[in-house]
């Protein structure tokens, strides 16, 4: 969190185009990044179509690690009302992607209030 966007980009790689969604691996990377941070409250927003696949880690494994370390994971499902392996009270469904920013903003206010 002490680097610029440009400096941070070299740490990220792109997966293959198509139906490859390594949600578990991406979440684990985010959890590991937050484990090393000194923030009082740590929250990850997962925005997804709800169908993770081809991942080194299951969503359940990552959720457990996050929970044990005080990290909150909030789900935003795009045109889906569930994320496989994601059981939480903090979840919102967005059926119209043009409303995504509005719904995420509402969710942020809900969580922080």
TrEMBL record:
Domain of life (superkingdom): Bacteria
InterPro entries: VWF_A (IPR002035), vWFA_dom_sf (IPR036465)
Domain VWFA: 18-81
Protein name stated in the entry: VWA domain-containing protein
Organism: Escherichia coli
């Amino acid at each position: 969190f002490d680097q610029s966007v440009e400096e941070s980009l070299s740490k990220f790689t792109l997966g293959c185009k198509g139906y490859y969604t390594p949600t578990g691996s991406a979440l684990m990377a985010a959890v590991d990044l937050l484990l090393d941070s000194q923030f009082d409250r740590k929250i990850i927003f997962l925005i997804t179509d709800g169908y993770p696949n081809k991942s080194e880690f299951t969503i359940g494994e990552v959720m457990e690690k996050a929970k044990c370390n005080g990290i909150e994971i909030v789900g935003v499902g795009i045109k889906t009302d569930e994320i496989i392996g994601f059981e939480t009270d903090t979840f919102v469904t967005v059926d119209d992607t043009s409303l995504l920013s509005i719904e995420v903003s509402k969710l942020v206010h809900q969580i922080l209030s």
